[in-house]
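tl;dr need the bound structure. longer version: we got a ligand (nicotinamide-adenine-dinucleotide) that a collaborator sent over and nobodys looked at where it sits. i said id run it. heres the input, straight from their email, havent touched it
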Amino acid sequence: MNALEEPQAPAFVTRLHGSGGSLRGWVVVDSLVDGLAMGGTRMTAGVSEEEVAGLARDMTDKFTLAGLRIGGAKAGIVAGGTDREETFRTFGRTVKPLLHGGIHLGIDMGVTPADRAVFFAEAGYDPRFRLGAPDMPIDWRTYYEPLIDATGHGVGVAAVTALEARGHQGPARVVIQGFGAVGRAVARFLEARGHIVVGVADVQGTISADRLPVAALVAATDTFGHIERSGLPQGVTLSEGADAWLDVDADLLVLAAQKHALTAENAHRLRAGVVVEGANLASNGAAKEKAAGAGVTLVPGVIANIGGAASAALAVTRVVPFGLEAGARKAWVFDWVGDRVRQNTMDLLEIAAGRAGDPLPELLAARRAERR
Ligand SMILES: NC(=O)c1ccc[n+]([C@@H]2O[C@H](COP(=O)([O-])OP(=O)(O)OC[C@H]3O[C@@H](n4cnc5c(N)ncnc54)[C@H](O)[C@@H]3O)[C@@H](O)[C@H]2O)c1
């Protein structure tokens, strides 16, 4: 294998049929570092082994780029309309040996903190304790819940870094596709640094104005990222057309909604010079090529959106200074995420400036070599 080649096959794939109940799904452990791997659990009707494997590879890449000593994994459960609690109890019994063996499985699409509590309890798994590792002095929720905005923080750092690298001066006009946990945190981060949010989109359409008041928008949004139209300030423009967020004139576009938002079919409509992926796989390969061809700077999700995963991995690998009081501990994690995202963004853009083609494989190869 030469330095640029990625390892091909996952370390192992476990097919789930259920223990003491039936279940269909997979756990893909893409890579192990020091016997550890981690990733979220996704439950959708259409999830496939291929999708889980792709997401597990993404986790490997994120941790490699961030310099975290843990491998990438992902779990997928095919949603079957059976009793939710029973499903997660069965899941907990089935993946029990993996959880206790260093494969930490968290939350992803379709799985809530309450579901996680069910499968952790059924497996008798508490991430505070692991053979051979020091105990965490606080429980998982006390550590993790205050870090909800860590992903948005990192995405914001990537955006500011990319704007600076392009020589952008003064406030940038920003469009944010997706106003969920990530989109809202990015909006607050960028507004606090003097940038102007001119467009936001949720699944129902796009809201735009010369300047959108972020606090008022957040107040009109529910926890699922639905913006209540009746609560909006006067003078905003509403567009229901699909991808209308692409038509708002802006310097920066943040993709914080679903996968493949940017494709070969719509990339020619890009107006912003900088695109940052807050969502996983927010653009596909063809869209990235088109964007690069049009001179657009794109920061991929594996660099920008590591905040949530990195926060969890920092605890699982016991890198967090748990002795710090709550506020200082949160600041430490946010600074750690911001530093890694800034460095990776700068290094990626430097590689991109030096040659044609996707710069990510070269950066990954460099980080893999550093980790050895
Ligand atoms: N939350 C995290 O820490 C985190 C970490 C890494 C990646 N991600 C990914 O980032 C994305 C956003 O995460 P989140 O936690 O903010 O999700 P969320 O469910 O809280 O919010 C999603 C937002 O996207 C909007 N949306 C969905 N489909 C859309 C469409 N077709 N057009 C426009 N808007 C659409 C929704 O209305 C909502 O505002 C997801 O893909 C998620 O998997 C999240």
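gonna send this back to them w/ a short note. Residues 150-307+336-371 form a domain with the Rossmann fold fold (CATH 3.40.50.720).
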